[in-house]
Every structure is written in C-alpha cells, then in structure tokens.
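Hi F.,

I've been meaning to write this up properly since the lab meeting, where we talked about keeping a consistent format for the predictions we share between groups. The idea is simple: the sequence comes first, exactly as it goes in, then the structure tokens exactly as they come out, then a line or two of notes. No screenshots and no reformatting. I'm using this chain as the first example so we have something concrete to point to.
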Amino acid sequence: MISEEAVILGHVLVDMEQEDDGSWHAEIEGFRGLHTCGATQQEAWRNATDAAIAYLMSCQKHGDPIPLSIHFGRSPYAKWPEW
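Output, unedited:
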C-alpha cells in the first residue's frame, strides 16, 4: 500500500490536447479510463492532478495495484507546466 505522502511525491505523465472548441482534454497515461478536461490548460491540469490523486487513493483503499507508470521520487525529467 502507498501512503498519502507517497502520492504527493509521485509523478505521472499527463497527455494534454486542445480540442476544436478551445477546451483541453487530459489523459493520465497508465491510469486506465482516467480522462478529464477543462476550459483552460491550467484547469485541465488541475483536474487531471485531482483525478490522479483520487485514483491512487482508491487503489490504496481497495487494495488494487498501483499503475506501473507511476514513479515515486524525484525525476530529472520532471517539469512543471509554465503558465
């Protein structure tokens, strides 16, 4: 099981794409079925982050495996969006 601290330190790859109507779609790679959106890129990012945390907390609560795509610790490749 993971702790809340581990969830906060973990990072995932968020695939974002702007839709024809100007809204943004976000998908968390490796988290089956986890898609979200937002009116702005920032909103989609926040929604994706909240959804990923909820997904991981649900995995912990129900004893489900953590997706293999999540990496805990600090990555030299991690970069926060610049907005």
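Notes:
Residues 5 and 72 are 10 Å apart (CA to CA).
Residues 1-9, 72-77 have pLDDT under 50 and may be disordered.

If this format works for you, I'll send the rest the same way.

G.
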